[in-house]
Amino acid sequence: MRPDTPAENVDHTAEAARLERTAGLYPEDAEALLLRAAAHLELAGERPAATAFYDRLLSAPGTLENPALVRALKASNLWEYGHEAEARAIIEGVRAASPRDPAPWVIVAESLESHDELESAHETFTEAARLLLADAPEPPRPTHPLLYGRHRVRRMLGLPHDDWDTLADTLHSMPVTLDELHDPKRVWSLGSDNPAELEAEISRLRAELGAYREALSRPFPVAMLHWPAEELTELLSAYPSLSAEYPSYEEHLAAIEDALRELESSGTRNLGVVRGTVPSYEAFAASEGASPADASLLPQYATTLGARGRAVAWPPQRGAECWCGSGRTYGDCHGASTAAER
């Protein structure tokens, strides 16, 4: 369950407890799992409990893949329940550390923005852009929220467009333009008695919500399960009944690509591919009290790998290797037909 799921459809406290239990089963993935658990606790209004998860991770900093992200999330959460001074100190520490991941920058900048610190938010977004985008020929997808946030804050400050604002406009794919989404005057229409104005504002808000949902769900993709050739051979040798799911390796790869394209065409965002191994699949089946020969476990296994942060984003960035492991670029492998269509 993703943290952006509406509260009426999920018990966030129970989901946090489930993720904590899963972290106990997979300590190597505790960072991703406990961060999701903390997000659920924040949505449940249990902010001190969320801070406890952040502190738990930070107590062993040498084992964290992204300590700056954990600190940024902790700072944002602290500020929301009255610990402003501590939050500001952490934010300054994150900025001083100059992380190469855009996510901590976005989180601390948006925290400043949400508390009307627009100048500081602008400085933070700009500092991150200079650090992460100065030598980038094409902004990687994870940096897009950084450019969108900077555009929004500059709009609020009444600053003219610069080159990065123009780039943000180019990257933005929603039907409502960034200038419309980030227009400070749009909030005035919320108090209007004119149905047409209210309808227009609802349309804008829906478009912005779509962008936020995509950003929120980015670390937790909808994942398709890929068995490398040697793993698939071992799997089918051990559990022949699964041959109905995987008639051949080539068909397995084609089915993955077809499914991903179908999901994309239906509007599903943030897709990914996870690689299965027979030992980890057998361990997962044992944890579920089921047989690995049960084909219904396969999508559950893929979801679990995705939740543990094991997914590779699809489609790959331009020039990146194909998800299938062939060693060729995606455009010369499973993405060849897509490139031809474009």
Question: Can you put this structure into words, describing what you see?
Answer:
With 342 residues, the protein is mainly α. It folds into two domains: 7-217, Alpha Horseshoe (Serine Threonine Protein Phosphatase 5, Tetratricopeptide repeat), CATH 1.25.40.10; 222-341, no CATH class. Helix content is 59%, strand content 4%. A three-stranded mixed sheet has the order 1-2-3, sandwiched between helices. Helix 2 (30-43) runs antiparallel to helix 3, helix 4 runs parallel beside helix 6 and helix 7 packs antiparallel against helix 8. The longest helix is centred in the middle third of the chain and has 23 residues, at 195-217. The radius of gyration is 22 Å and the shape is globular. The two termini are 34 Å apart. 33% of the residues are buried.
Instruction: Return the CATH class of the largest domain.
Output: Mainly Alpha
SSE string, helices as H and strands as E = HHHHHHHHHHHEHHEHHEH
Corresponding CATH superfamily of the largest domain:
Tetratricopeptide repeat domain
Using the 3D structure, state the CATH architecture of the largest domain: Alpha Horseshoe
Strand content: under 5%
Can you tell me the overall shape?
Answer: globular
Termini separation: 34 Å
Low-confidence stretches: 1-7, 210-219
Q: Which fold name is given in CATH as the topology of the largest domain?
A: Serine Threonine Protein Phosphatase 5, Tetratricopeptide repeat
Number of distinct beta strands = 3
Strand order of the largest sheet: 1-2-3
**Approximately how much helix is present in the residues?**
55-70%
The biggest sheet, with number of strands, parallel, antiparallel or mixed sense and barrel status, is: 3 strands, mixed
- Averaging pLDDT over every residue, what do you get? 85
Q: Which structural class do the helices and strands define?
A: mainly alpha
Number of structurally distinct domains: 2
